[in-house]
Every structure is written in C-alpha cells, then in structure tokens.
Amino acid sequence: MIGGGYVGLVSGACFAEFGTDVAIVEQDPHKLDALLNGRIPIYEPGLDAIVSKNTETGRLTFGNDLAAAIANADAVFIAVGTPTRRGDGHADLSYVYAATREIAKAAKNSLLIVTKSTVPVGTGRQVAQILKDERPDIEFSVASNPEFLREGSAIDDFMRPDRVIIGIDNTSPEQADRATEIMRELYRPLYLIEAPIVFTDLETAELTKYAANAFLAMKVTFINEMADLCEKVGANIHDVAKGMGLDRRINRRFLHAGPGYGGSCFPKDTRALTAIAQDAGMRSRLVETTIEINEARKSQMAERIIAAAGGSVHSKKIGVLGLTFKPDTDDMREAASLPILTRLCDEGAHIQAFDPEGMDAARPLLPEVIDYRQDALSAAEDVDILVILTEWNAFRAIDPKRLRETMRGDIIIDLRNIWKPESFRAAGFKYSSIGRP
Ligand code: UDX
Q1: Which of 56, 48, 64 lies closest to 4, judged by CA?
Q2: Hey, where are the domains in the chain?
Q3: What is residue 70's predicted lDDT score, i.e. its pLDDT?
Q4: 6-195 architecture in CATH?
Q5: Residue 48 pairs with which residues in a beta bridge?
Q6: Where does substrate bind (predicted)?
Q7: Does the reported pTM lie above 0.90?
Q8: CB atoms < 10 A from the CB of 312, how many?
Q9: Annotated binding residue at 158?
C-alpha cells in the first residue's frame, strides 16, 4: 500500500484484517514515526484497534522502503494524495505518477497495480502506459478500485460496503484475468456477506466514484435549497425530507439540511468532475451549479448570524459548538466553520469555540483571536449568541435550562437542526434553525 494517509491506512489495516499481508509505505517521516510507534495520526473510530491487532500479528507493517515492500507483493495499491491543482480545478496527479515510476523501477516480476486514490478518468490508462514505458520487460496488470469511505465510519464502510467497484485494464485478456483473480481473493470475505462487487473497465470505475460523490453533493445541496424555500413558505424541512426520502427511489439518507457540505472529498471531487467534463468538451452544469450554490451558502450562513444579532456582531460574544466539517472526525478541510468564523471575526465578534476533536486542526486555519474552550458549556459561558456548526452527539444532550443560565444572551442559531425548537423556546431562547418554522 503506497501511502499511509487516510485511505491507505484504513484500506491497508482492513485488508490485513481480512487476512492479507500488508506493507504500508509512508514517505513522511513524522507520519511514519507515529505509525511505527503505534500512534494513529488521524482520528477514526475503531482504526486504532485493528491497526494494533494486525501489527502485533505481523500482518500489517510500516516502512519507507518501497522496493522492499513490493518485493514479494502480488498487488500494489496506490493510495497517495490527489489534491486540487491550483488554477484549473484538476486533481494533481504528480504523486500518483511518481509512485507509479518508483514501482516500475523496483518491480522484479509481474505485478498488479491498483489505483485507490480518487483519480480522473484516464489515469489508470496513463499508469499502465508509464509502467509499459519504464519496464517493457515486465507484465503489469492495472486496476482501479475507488474507495467510498466516509470519515467517522470508514472501517464499517470498508468491512460492510454497499458495493465495491473494480475496474480492470482489459488490454491483455491474460493480465485482466490475473487482476480479476487477485482482486477477488483480496475481497473474499465480502463475498461471504454478499456485498455487491462490480467488475468493469478502468474508465467506468474511475467515473463511478466521481459520479457518486457529485450526486451526493447535489442531494445535500438540493435539500439545503428546499430548506431555504421552507423558511420562505412556512414549511418544515424535516418533514419534507422525510416525506421525500420515504420514496425508495430517493432514499432518506443525505437529506439533512445544514450549512453546506465540506470535507476532503465532495468539494475536491465535484471540482475535478467539472474539469473532467470540460476536458472532454462538455460542461457538467448541474455539478457546476452545485459547487456555486454550496460556496455561496457558507457566506450566507455568516449573514444569517449577523442578521440574528440585529445587523451587527461587533463586540458581540458568540459561542460556537462544533468546528469540523462533520461529526466523528478531526478533519477541518473545507469545513463550513472556516469561512463563517473568519467572517464573524472580521466583523469584530469575539468567538468562544469548542469541538470535541477538531480544535488542534482548527487553530492554524482560523483567526488567532478565537478563544478555544474545553467543553460545550464553557464555550457558551456569558455569550450573547450560540451557534451550532457541527452535529456532534454530545451536543444533543445539553439541557436548555442550564444553557440559558450559562449564556448572557438568548439567541441560538442551530445550523444543524440538532435541537427541538419547542424545548429551547420554552427555556426562553430565540431559537432559529435551518428550514424549520
Ligand atoms: C464522502 C462520501 O460519503 C464517501 O463515500 C467518499 O468516499 C468520501 O466523501 P465524507 O467526506 O467523509 O465522505 O463525508 P460525508 O458523510 O459524505 O459528508 C460530506 C459533507 O456533507 C459533510 O460536510 C456533511 O456535513 C454534509 N452533509 C452530509 C450534509 O450537510 N447533509 C447530509 O444529509 C449529509
């Protein structure tokens, strides 16, 4: 497994748990040092346990020597980063291609190379070409096996997936058969639980990943738009979403209105998809519009808070619960809190914030003036306004009466709809949420 980041580490540990010997190659000395010393550099429930269990048995190892790691391998997974390239929205593939060249250089016998990173359509084909150019003496097979892991439930997503997508380079039938056989073997435990495994070609597998993420980003954006409409016409988004979602063709998941999607995947993958479409000579207007609406939404959320404060937040004390892009992660990438809190600080607000896992990651990304607190109630202490930005479960149990005594003001803006409006209004709050009367 080349790359011990989020995808590489979770996939590597889970393959080891499935019974395969896995060597994870990580170049970053800090990350590697952490892994070698039994520290998991990311927050992911359950990961710690499988990593330590499988390192103890020796099935999972870490190192920085790629040649040694692939010496006796049947398959090599590329799980390096593919950040958005500056300027054109494309995924930056330099790490993927560099890893490919290194693998080619070090390879001793025929090998299956699998891209696990989310890569644009055509990358698998390009990987195959590089391998051929660099080592015409070796028979490589190439596959694309995109991940569909959600942060916070990645282990479960890997162990009990809705589906596994495997694209195989079928240029040579012999190599394709070999690749199929190895991939089947790797995912064998999933056949037992009858998880659907879809075998297809490289380009289809690559596009499927983008299509799925873009669709989900669109679904969230759609429900956000309906929530805005609910506010205008006096309807309740909770029931609208429920009513829509009971239609099995729509499905209830991902219909939770909020401050706009963030994270390491949706923003990056939607941008990459529009770039792929443009390169192919067309536009993906639905996805382009989704991106635009979602970006705008984050600044609208700051406006909403300013309006609720009576038109200005200057010198106002604002308590903030939740900073990460979603709960059960310490990930701050493209979190709605970033533009919202930056704007509120620019407007002269004093922010007291608490997040159960994200504060270390948040500090360097947010204005320095933010005062980080050790728990939710302390973040609410003496504030004029309280804003909920991430729906951590721990916040659900907060007692409205106790909160009322803690705050000096009475305004709550719940951008994740975690609380019952009636209970908070009964406790004397001016409570507003998203799309609920
Ligand atoms: C996502 C995909 O779900 C996963 O399949 C893919 O492989 C990686 O990207 P992740 O980024 O971990 O996973 O988060 P996800 O749970 O999908 O949420 C993404 C964003 O959408 C979050 O900001 C979340 O708050 C938001 N969201 C999600 C909503 O606002 N409402 C919803 O109903 C669902």
Answers
A1: 64
A2: 6-195, 295-433
A3: 96
A4: 3-Layer(aba) Sandwich (3.40)
A5: none
A6: 148-151, 209, 254-258, 262, 326
A7: yes
A8: 12
A9: no
